[in-house]
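Sync notes, pocket subgroup
Present: LS, DG
LS reminded everyone that the earlier model was apo-only. Rerun requested with KG4 included. Inputs:
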Amino acid sequence: MIILSIESSCDETAAALTQDGRRVLSSVIHSQVDIHTLYGGVVPELASRSHIQAVSRLAALALQEAGLSRREIDAVAVTYAPGLIGAVLVGVGFAKGAALSLGVPLIPVHHIRGHIAANYIAHPDLEPPFVCLVASGGTSMIVEVQDYTRMTVLGSTRDDAAGECFDKAARVLGIGYPGGAQIDSLSRSGDPEKYRLPQSHVTGNPYDMSFSGLKTAVVNLAHTAKQRGEELDLPSLAAAICRAVSDTLLSRALLAAEERGYGKLAIAGGVSANTLLRADLEAACARSGLKAYCAPLSLCGDNAAMIGCQGYYEFLAGVRGDSSLNAYATMSPDSAFIRW
Ligand code: KG4
């Protein structure tokens, strides 16, 4: 089954063609980094406009790269939640039109479920159940993936997402945008012991986490250094941020994987590209006898191949959209899915 998939939830417009879920025939991405760099963060209205300008061209390019014609598309999958509402609407509108004009089913896909599915593309042997840590710019959560379309959020951030913490820290430190990748590369020459940064301890749910304290600590360090006219050792501060984020995320994920007893722990989302997090995952899983899964960097950030992959499993589970499909800014990945 060949699926044309569309992703437009934030600042990347993406289209892909996938076959039977895990085989990627083509995957194209148009990044808006150049536009948003000017403002140090994503400007929602500009993101929506850029998606409108790019989406048809990208779908055509994906078809061309796959060497397929429109008639060979069996279904259209699209991210319908969560994300910047104007941005998600662009993809949903395009996908509805494409499915209607091609006379094929429309499959709504939850963005976080798509991130988790990036691991299916990367690892042909991976099948649910497993535990997945999802960390991106908009969310950080521990998900129990019981089945391809049945999952439970075990815990999540009580405030900021890990990616948001990276991005904000990079902005106040003048490192640039998007922050996560820049902090990651700076951190490689730093000493993670030089700065002491706080790690969250939340009460109630052992899988919940918090990143606002870490973000505030970095902001305060930057302001204090400026007032005193001191230079910060940016590589070492970057290394300390990566250490704090990795420890916070992985301690919860490991606890969940061990308690659930599935023996498999995956990571997903833009932050799963982080060098230290990936190394820590491998080391911790080796120590605990768990099998570690992470996708190649090209599949960690937003892309449409992951939406096509998850779309396939949603289709098999009977999920369908129609012309009344809406876009949603917020939605938990474990909420009941739509069937028609
Ligand atoms: O999954 P994603 O591409 O978009 C969302 O769905 O949010 O995640 C983007 C986030 C940004 O906050 C970005 O700074 C972060 O992922 N990120 C990283 C790295 N690469 C991207 N964070 C840490 N280390 C990286 N190498």
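DG: The domain at 2-116+300-335 is CATH 3.30.420.40 (Nucleotidyltransferase; domain 5).
LS: The pocket of KG4 is lined by residues 10, 136-138, 163, 166-167, 178-181, 184, 269-271, 273-274, 301-302 (CB under 6 Å).
Action: DG to write up.
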